[in-house]
Amino acid sequence: xxxxxxxxxxxxxxxxxxVALAGQNALEEQYGLRAQAVAESVAEIPDVRELxxxxxxxxxxxxxxxxxxxxxxxxxVVITDVEGIRHSHPNPDRIGKPVSTSPALALAGxxxxxxxxxxxxxxxxxxVPIWDATGENxxxxxxxxxxxxxxxxxxxxxLPGLLLAGGGAFAAGSAGAYLGARRIRRxxxxxxxxxIAALFEHRDGLLMALHEGxxxxxxxxxxxxxxxxxxxxxxxxxxxxxxxxxxxAVLLPLVDLAQAGSPQVDxxxxxxxxxxxxxxxxxxxxxxxxxxxxxFRDRTELQGLVSExxxxxxLIDALRAQAHEHSNNLHTVSGLIELGRHxxxxxxxxxxxxxxxxxxxxxxxxxxxxxxxxxxxxxKAAVAGERDVRLRTHLGELPQFEVRFSRDLVTVVGNLVxxxxxxxxxxxxxxxxxxxxxxxxxxxxxIDVSDSGEGISADVLDSIFDPGxxxxxxRSHDGLGLxxxxxxxxxxxxxxxxxxxxxxxxxxxxxxxIRTHEELVHA
Length: 523
Description:
This protein is α+β, with helices and mostly antiparallel strands. It folds into 3 domains: about 1-155, PAS domain (Beta-Lactamase), CATH 3.30.450.20; about 210-300, Beta-Lactamase (2-Layer Sandwich), CATH 3.30.450.20; about 365-520, Histidine kinase-like ATPase, C-terminal domain (Heat Shock Protein 90, 2-Layer Sandwich). The protein contains 15 helices and 14 strands. The strands form 3 sheets. The chain has a 5-stranded antiparallel beta sheet with strand order 6-5-9-8-7. A hairpin with a 2-residue loop joins strand 2 and strand 3 (about 120-130). The two termini are about 55 Å apart.
């Protein structure tokens, strides 16, 4: 009960201050508009226009200004020329001297009111330009103001009513607090605040245990919630709450995503050396944007899982491709038998047997040490063959890899091979070939992938590893393959080089240090 009464008292105090400030702002606006109206009336007086335009300080202007000041009850009426030199002022000693506040907006032809501090103190003033007889040129300005002390006095006259309303609200709030406390206790089934707090702590614990990164921003770009996974992925300090994302250049894409104001799902963003899939949902309260919440997933990790699925799907595609190829060959053989062309039958069977024998010799007797890679290459070879591209593979003896390293290896090889095959198809290279070589060399895995395509222009070689860069037409996920390869290679501290010449094909060379289980755990 005491806590609720304290809250009511604080809320009433805050509301009273807010009402007082709002009242002061309203009064300032009222006095400002009044001062602006008086200034506009002065600026329309023909004598004022002519005397100011002459640039000669005339006592008549001072007389006109003081007469208007006394009749309207304003604090001052100051008339200046285009140089900002006073021609009138309540203090005659200041006539002929420049004004203390900027006349730039009025001289630019703008009429408005402001709260500024001049030689007479803080005031609410209206400033308007004085136009010449043609209405085309500004020859001076009129500044009319009311000191803020008068505004405060008007506000003080209204305070008793505000205090009376606040006292009545506190009395009503006290009664409501008593009834509300009884009702809340029933609704919470008798749980005390510490027990409710424990429930929220459990919720936070679950949030931090999520494998996905979670981060929330307020409308000013400050982090209001972040779990440990998001801190790791984004490189934030251990207590990321209160940080501004725009303080780090690599996180500016997230700020742009939050300011978009619309939901974004699985947007690939390059954050440092990682490619993350980012989902952004705006937070709106009473139709007003108050911030955004993000979830993050490591694109490389997901790509590894996708690679495994693609390997399985690739085997299915390979079997389907082989079945389709065998069916076509059988139909061809049947036709040639009917035509009696036995030599052509032998040639066809020989070519087909040679291709099958080459694949069989390549993958025969491969143990389980590199089965994921073998399965992936087998699928790639079959699917490429169906697209009229021949894969030549040179696979050395490979050691037993950790699953994570094996997945990353498949990611690198698979994306390089897919990129090469797609390039040959897009370039319409007849009888295109892709050659793959994988071997172990002094603690590293070496990978060479070359194609017989048209090569890559030298002016785009520096851009091919950028996320989103592509030369393909309207394909899903274009622009990510080579970026993922570069990300994996960089993550392992490896290297990748490109040797390409127009008309002579392209060679990608990759070197990946083999990581042990302990190194991967602590990576």
